[in-house]
């Protein structure tokens, strides 16, 4: 099992550009989430999914879109990048039977200039 | 939504001493409380968790306690070692898939 795989690991964008952060898991987990991590603010939930075809907003969804067409993949789209979106992004997955113990991907460090 | 507060933000302990991190939560319906450890430049990793029907759980040198009435839970690390130096996050949820995290505690173990 590769676990949770995120790509790319690093990305620099110009203000206004769009991009997609990829996330894939091979553990057949129902739950997947995207978090952003900023210094002193912990991990804040952007969007989450409880299964294929089902997504919902988290705490900080503005400027981001998600979709979940398959159980394995949960891409995060930045529509028009802004400097405020400079952050480290983590994708995570969990199984309903696992009781909420999320497995995190290795993260994507995004800088918007 | 759920609001989780975590204290202290930084903690420095002598090797061999104990470390305690405390978290409070706002939603009385929350029933699952995991703790994550994040080493520098790495991903968060689950180290221990507790459900609301349990008051305490131990795993070797780490333990978590939960006080549902007061809506707070704590992480205890005994006999700290240099490899315990990391950022620790508490979290709470009522539905397993929507975790709310605390702001984190940076623990430094002094040799």
List the helices and strands and how they pair.
The complex is a heterodimer of chains A (113) and B (111).
Chain A: E1 4-7, E2 10-13, E3 19-25, E4 31-37, E5 43-51, E6 54-57, E7 64-66, E8 76-78, E9 87-94, E10 103-104, E11 108-112
Chain B: E1 4-7, E2 10-14, E3 19-25, E4 32-38, E5 45-51, E6 56-59, E7 62-67, E8 72-77, E9 86-92, E10 100-101, E11 105-110
Parallel strand pairs in B: 2-11
Antiparallel strand pairs in B: 1-3, 3-8, 4-5, 4-9, 6-7, 7-8, 9-10, 9-11
Word description of this protein:
The complex is a heterodimer of chains A (113) and B (111). Chain A contains no helices and eleven strands. Chain A has 113 residues and is mainly beta. In chain A, the strands form two sheets. In chain A, strands 2, 4, 5, 6, 9, 10 and 11 form a seven-stranded mixed β-sheet that branches. The termini of chain A are far apart. In chain B, a hairpin with a 6-residue loop joins strand 4 (32-38) and strand 5 (45-51). The mean pLDDT of chain B is 95. The interface between A and B is medium-sized, with 26 and 24 residues.
